Amino acid sequence: MSEDEREDEQERWGRHQEKTFEKPAHDTLLKAIKNFNGFTGYSIDLGCGSGMDTLELL
Fold first, then answer.
1. What is the pLDDT of residues 7-17, one digit of tens each?
2. Is the pTM of this model over 0.85?
3. Region class of 38: left (phi > 0), else alpha (psi between -120 and 50), else beta
4. Range of 10's domain?
């Protein structure tokens, strides 16, 4: 990856994070949590972004 491509990629992720910052978790995650009726255990958020789903899982 060239230096220009790397900078473009960083700018793209920066814009994505700005758009998703402080948004609520995805509806599908909220429904899944509700369906587990308080079950606790381990989870992994493999996405990339502002962490809105990760925060909900904590």
1. 888 898 888 88
2. no
3. left
4. 3-57
